[in-house]
Write a structure and sequence with these properties.
Strand order of the largest sheet: 4-5-8-6-7
Distance between the termini: 27 Å
Bound molecules: S-adenosylmethionine
Number of helices: 9
Order of helices and strands: HEHEHEHHEHEHEEHEH
Shape: elongated
Largest sheet: 5 strands, mixed
Radius of gyration: 19 Å
Number of strands: 8
Structural class: alpha/beta
Strand content: 15-25%
Amino acid sequence: MTLRAAKLIARAEVVLYDNLISPGVLALLPPAAERIYVGKRCAEHTLRQDAINALLVEHALRGKRVLRLKGGDPFIFGRGGEEIATLSAHGIPFEVVPGITAALGAAAYAGIPLTHRDYAQSCVFVTGQSQDASMDLDWTALARPRQTIVVYMGLPGLPQLCAKLVEHGMPARTRAAVVQQGTLSSQRVVTGTLASLPRLVTKAKLHAPTLIIVGNVVRLRDKLNWFGPAA
Ligand SMILES: C[S@@+](CC[C@H](N)C(=O)[O-])C[C@H]1O[C@@H](n2cnc3c(N)ncnc32)[C@H](O)[C@@H]1O
């Protein structure tokens, strides 16, 4: 986290935090801070967001210094925009502190540079989850050569993701990886190709939170893996 985040955590009076917040980060809170676990799992976002927004407003209007503690970056699949829109509508001043989004943290700790002059000049972040549980993505745009794709919340749709990319022209031998619990000591990484990855991931019994990285930058891990044992 940034120094700014650490400073604001230390001054919080009321904290609303998610399930991806580690005990180590919670330990930085002042002992007197009121802690409210809002425990969103991805599938519950739609149900719970209004209640979270209302809590933020309620505590801020009580004159409290409210900290909304999220994993990664609040503006990357984090609903940060929706929450501050609610604050703005109520005239409540706020500050957004950027964080290290899972794609950047997990890629670094997996030894997979997301861009590289030899392999990828662009990188896109997409979510594998949609309102109706389908993977409704712009497959033609995703299947462009020399591009890295990072998929958040994509594990259940991994077979469909790999098949769709191949169907839209990506070579089946394109390298891909799944990183489970990136940056943590429990991190696991499974690598393969678009053809082999779904089978390898099933065999490894990976579970959320995971990130999928697709693109030939994944082959760099063979040389650049520096953190922990390979799965
Ligand atoms: C609701 S999104 C929140 C993303 C967050 N705002 C960020 O910037 O990283 C949650 C998803 O992020 C990804 N994620 C978060 N932490 C992760 C980790 N340590 N390792 C792998 N994926 C992670 C997973 O895809 C997970 O399902």
